[in-house]
Design brief:
With 533 residues, the protein is an alpha/beta fold. It is 27% helix and 26% strand.
């Protein structure tokens, strides 16, 4: 059945006996699920009822389960060898996680039956205790080789360095590593010690090879770029199955971020395939590996499979999802704060000028990361979708303002880039473009009568928390935005190549809700941070 569902074939001519190779392994893989238990729409947020009625939904655990079981069952029936691995970040990203704190993800993963799961950074979002609760509920191996959890009273002995699977009479070693900057992007605490990813993987390869394991796959949560460095630097690895960067690889789609698989050469001449399957349950990866008798890789092929309406969801799983979704309506009704007045978030103001909701949201964003040295917040006015009435503020109202499940993104750019971003923001005023820049820690003036790219003036930034100063085009500033804007959405292309970019922070709705809760009674305001001539 080789290549029965794969879009392209890549041959690796490492042995003259390739045609006589006697062991093939199918690796089904997912990564960065981010609690998308319900199906998602085109923007990766929970699919609306309208889109569902028009068969415009993707993914969701019921659809993913159906496709995994279909492939696994058909491959097994044909005498093929198959495993399923998860490259991490099950946690965070929908109200399913907010409501059940990993219990729903654990339940559905148990039904999915992965052979191994690598830890992602977001598995630490509720600290080691939150991860420990998840581990209580699952029976499959959860691994991360570059973590020392021996000092943790809740994780010691519970996260393995690696696992050896017996598949079709052969031993398959699964090793792993988690990005070392997890200490900055999540909450592992000081009792979880990180080791360099490449050093750790080399050590685990050596351990497995000493045990006679010759087929070794790295299932990592470090991102596509570092995955390629790992593939080049770690002898003995036969393939890298990654996550963390939400990279869409494809063997067939010209809009891909890279080829599936992406081939990396080692100094020895060995070639290592690197794969990833985007995020949010939208795709299932299917990698086929063929090994020679000595364990060397001689062939690899594969593709990502789009889980669209052509995949019929598993009805039992779908029913359980609907059952769990019921109480979420109660979450929407939960009061998280109070506003003394209505907070204006209308498109007529937030896409044209300083608006109260823009100030609230960017202030909340900046407050969340100010202890990381971030001094400026910028978000697109089109991402603010509604106003909030005076009186008690519910989580449902917050979600109506920020419905897209965009995440907090931090990065470093020059003052010149920031001015270019502001110019982009006012470049589509005439048609109400959603790119209008709402800001905090910064103020600016613009004149719609001037030509595009020459409308912005008098840009100032806050220094030391209490003094305004003209922006310096040559100085680098640390900024917080959302992942959509940072990725170039709404024309913000100047942020695409920003330094130190991290796009996978908490959901903006959660950030806003926590800010309102902390402030108790909130009074909306305008302070002249944006001046329209």
């Amino acid at each position: 059945m080789k290549n029965h569902l794969l879009g392209s074939v890549a041959f690796l001519a490492l042995s003259a006996g390739a045609a006589q190779a006697d062991y093939t392994l199918h690796v089904l893989h997912i990564n960065d699920f981010h609690s998308r238990i319900e199906p998602v729409g085109a923007t990766d947020s929970t699919c609306s009822a309208e889109d569902a009625a028009e068969n415009k939904c993707f993914g969701g655990i019921a659809r993913l389960s159906a496709k995994v079981n279909e492939l696994r069952d058909s491959l097994t029936a044909a005498g093929e060898n198959v495993i399923l691995v998860d490259a991490g970040d099950q946690f965070q990203g929908s109200l399913m996680y907010t409501t059940y704190k990993g219990a729903a993800e654990a339940e559905f993963l148990e039904a999915l039956r992965p052979d191994a799961m690598a830890l992602g950074n977001h598995e630490f979002d509720d600290g080691p205790e939150g991860l420990a609760t998840f581990l209580d509920k699952v029976t499959f191996p959860v691994i991360s080789g570059n973590l020392d959890v021996s000092q943790s009273n809740v994780l010691a002995g519970r996260v393995q360095n690696h696992v050896v699977l017996e598949v079709g009479g052969e031993k398959i070693g699964i090793i792993s590593a988690l990005a070392v900057d997890t200490t900055e992007t999540s909450s592992p605490g000081n009792q979880v010690i990180f080791q360099n990813e490449i050093d750790s993987l080399k050590a685990d390869v050596a351990t497995l090879e000493a045990e006679g394991v010759t087929k070794i796959i790295a299932v990592t949560h470090v991102g596509y770029t570092l995955d390629q460095e790992i593939a080049a630097a770690v002898p003995g690895i036969d393939a890298v199955v990654g996550g963390h960067s939400h990279t869409y690889l494809s063997a067939t789609d010209p809009n891909r971020a890279g080829p599936y698989p992406t081939w990396v050469s080692q100094d020895s001449g060995a070639m290592v395939p690197v794969v990833q399957a985007y995020a949010y349950s939208k795709y299932l990866g299917h990698l086929e590996l063929t090994f020679a008798d000595d364990g060397s890789l001689i062939h690899a092929s594969g593709n990502t499979i789009l889980l669209d309406s052509s995949v019929t969801p598993d009805p039992a799983i779908e029913a359980r999802v609907a059952e769990l979704a019921g109480p979420i309506e109660e979450v929407k009704a939960r009061v998280i704060g109070e506003s003394t007045e209505a907070i204006d978030g209308s498109r007529e103001t937030c896409r044209q000028m300083e608006c109260q909701m823009g100030n609230l949201v960017t202030d909340a964003m900046l407050d969340r990361v100010k202890d990381q040295g971030v001094t400026i917040a910028i978000t697109n006015g089109g991402g603010l979708r509604s106003s909030i009435d005076a009186g008690p503020v519910t989580m449902g109202e917050v979600l109506s303002v920020l419905p897209f499940q965009n995440t907090l993104s931090t990065f470093t750019v020059t003052g010149a880039d920031l001015v270019a971003a502001l110019e982009n923001g006012v470049s589509r005023l005439e048609d109400g473009g959603g790119r209008f820049a709402q800001v905090s820690g910064m103020k600016y003036t613009f004149d719609p009568a001037q030509p595009v790219d020459a409308r912005v003036s008098d840009v100032q930034v806050m220094l030391g928390g209490d003094a305004w100063a003209p922006i310096d085009p040559a100085v680098e500033y640390t900024v917080v935005s959302n992942n959509y804007v940072r990725g170039g959405g709404d024309g913000f292309r100047m942020f695409v190549d920003a330094k130190n970019a991290y796009d996978f922070g908490p959901d903006l709705a959660d950030v806003l809700a926590e800010f309102l809760a902390k402030n108790g009674s909130y009074t909306p305001y305008l302070d002249g941070r944006i001046t329209r001539k």
